[in-house]
Amino acid sequence: MADDNPFPTSPVMPEMFDGDKVIQFSCHKGIACFNACCKNIDISLTPYDILRLKRRLGITSTEFLELFTLPYEIEKDGIAGVKLRPVEGGSACQFMTDEGCSVYEDRPTACRYYPVALLSMRRQDEYVDRNAYALVKEEHCLGHLEPRSISVDDYRKEQGLTDYDELARGWRQLILKKKSSGPSIGKPSKRSLQLFFMSCYDIDRFRDFVTSASFNLLYDIAEDERAKWQTDDVALMQFAFRFLRQVLFGEEEGIKMREAAAEARRRQVQDNRLRLELEAAEKLARQEDDMAED
Ligand code: SF4
Ligand code: SF4
Which residue's CA is the nearest one to ligand 2's atom 7? Predict the structure, then answer.
């Protein structure tokens, strides 16, 4: 099983549960620990978190990544993720103010979930991911002492997580696919890692890529879909997930290659196979010559 724990350094309670679990928790302005959780952050971002925040700040995804994030490896030699970058020389969130979160309406998924941890899971024999949850209890957080009971499902609704989770689903599935494909697929190429990073996190650069003349030479995309990408970040992000499933995992997503490009790709695959066969035959012949000389 693979998990995706958004609070890796926190003491996650070992108990895992479903959405109908009732927890005791409330967080509100005026609570004695107000802002304590934003003073020492470890917040992983989803692609949709980045869309919301860069739109909120009126900057491009490229600028947002540079100013507000740090890359990290979701798994060794595997795909990259991004985390919120704390203030220079400290551990507090750059969006924290005395009045609270300055981007509250667009705060990231992990901030919305806290103190619940979302664990995306997929058993090797399952093709659909499912969610389980755990409760994070940290000493500084007094919200657990507040007299309010709420189910995790209702807490998710209250925190606006229904859309956030739905729009991160394609990305989580890509990560689970990569994790469950394991070492048999080997270390991914630098190019495929770069493609994953740009497509998932740098949506404005991805837009330039898929609306370029060279992309248009390779792929046959309907005019109305291409036009939508210019203004609709969410539609573009969802195309990015389909594109990665097709390009990195060979899944049929209906993104049509132009015939000439497909033919060139087939020839390239054949040439590579032929080259490998020739190299193997030459190696074998050399070994036989060596043995004959001995
Ligand atoms: S984004 Fe807002 S809620 Fe999240 S850590 Fe920063 S200040 Fe806190
Ligand atoms: S109750 Fe917990 S989540 Fe709310 S401000 Fe305090 S530490 Fe943060």
Answer: 141
Domain tally for the chain? 1
- Neighbouring residues of 64: CB distance < 8 A, sequence distance ≥ 6: 50, 53, 54, 57
Give a yes or no: residue 12 inside a domain.
no
Q: Which ligand 1 atom minimizes the distance to the CA of 95?
A: 7
For ligand 2, atom 5, name the residue with the nearest CA: 34
Q: Which residues contact 140 (CB under 8 A, 6 or more apart)?
A: 33, 36, 37
pTM: 0.84
| Ligand 1, atom 4, residue with closest C-alpha | 111
Domain that holds residue 126: 22-179
Rounded to the nearest angstrom, the distance between the alpha carbon of 257 and the centre of ligand 1 is 42
Q: Is 288 domain-assigned? A: no
Could you read off the pLDDT of 48-66 as tens digits, one per residue? 999 999 999 999 999 999 9
Residue pLDDT, tens place only, 249-293: 889 899 998 887 778 777 877 887 788 888 888 888 888 777 777
Domain annotation covers residue 174: yes
